[in-house]
Amino acid sequence: MKILLINKYFYGRGGAECAFFEQSSLLERNGHRVIHFSMQHPRNHPSPYAPYFVSRVEFEETKSWREKTKAATRILFSREAQRKLTALVKTERPDLAHLHNIHHQISPSILPVLKHARIPIVMTLHDYKILCPVYTLYRDGAICEECLGGRFIRCLAHKCAKGSYLKSGLLSFEMYLHREILRSYELVDCFTCPSHFLKRKMAGAIENDKLFVVPNFAAGPAPHSGPSGDEKTIVYFGRLSPEKGLRTLLQALRGLDARCWIIGEGPERLPLEQYLRREAMENVTLMGYKPPEELPALIQQALFTVLPSEWHENRPRSVLESFSLARTVVASRIGGIPELVKDQETGLTFEAGNAIDLREKMQSLMKNPPLARALGRNAQRFVQEDWTPEIYYRALMEIYTIARERQP
Question: Which domain holds residue 254?
Fold first, then answer.
């Protein structure tokens, strides 16, 4: 089968991109021809289809009003994406299109192009963009679901996009345009959800017979456990942003006889540095970004990893990667996390935002390293037996068959 994979970034920017590239490799290993469509960027991986990629637009980097207007227009509807995708489809004639993260830089404006060419469309939902203009269902340090049911004007009322009425108004209008006016998402034949939690959230916005749960597989390195890990070392790895609950983590670590490495970059880097200096916390190290090839060795030096998120995580890759390395996880009981981190089976969970609860759960593992290692082994078996690449591939092929059968 000739499969068109679409994602707005073509380098390892985040979890959606990792899933995109892993799926691409898996399809190719199973004999399919994969065609890519994305956005131009200096960090992109090489691709024979790069001439078809849309030109680069980074909204936070635009300065002049002309550039801002161009970027705003691109968020709403991209004629360039339509034109270039039309040319690619005409040349390659794919049998099916699988979309990942397309919003803003590419936009749902490409959906009519695919439908006009009678190409079945599958879309993986990595976040809550179809429900929330800013993707996260999170505002001012707490879960926010005011936009559910199509009340996107609430984004403008609360200035959810970078505290700006202009940006928030633009994103609110984008949602009304594609959800209510153009009804762009009705052109998608099947949606895949990495977690049951996300499927339940989407049920009010998407027909139930179009929603399928297909958890991301663990493409992790190790069929073996590796080193046992230091009994006082804890690792967080991921994006440094407010919804990740890192302030709660630091509160839980104050005065704790433990060493914590925080790996990653993001907008919370400077506030975290300031907090650590102010509180004179020497047991926490901000290690910055580490490339994927260096991460496993760092994770394996820890007794366990921690994920203190305070937003509705979907199926976090940091948990899967920890599990694949036989590392249990202490994680907040929110979103899709409990589908992976099961109390006393694969890890421990705590009440999101509760530093005392988090501290107690971390201490319980440090006082009982054999339990931490046993949970880590359980977690490794869980990902190796329940969601392997082979299981994922079979589930994907079943959905591709359904999508193709739905073509008129």
Answer: 230-386
